[in-house]
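Before the break, one more example. Copy the sequence into your notebook; we will annotate it together after we see the structure.
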Amino acid sequence: MDHFFDWRIRDRQHLAGKEIYEIKPVILGGSPTDPANKTTLTRQQHIEAVCYWNKMILELRKNKAK
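Here is what the structure looks like once it is written out:
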């Protein structure tokens, strides 16, 4: 159990200041639970990624409405 606890502390330190982010949004078919669909981003990277996907989703919705 101590080994698991040590790993959690190191992992938490590694994630400090980072956002866990879904590579492919769930709304576009990405898995909300698959670790392969997760990554960590800095706050600035997270903002940029969210803006990108928001634009892509908006475009997809516009094209679907046509």
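Residues 2-65 form one domain. The two ends are 57 Å apart (CA to CA). Try to locate both features in your own notes.
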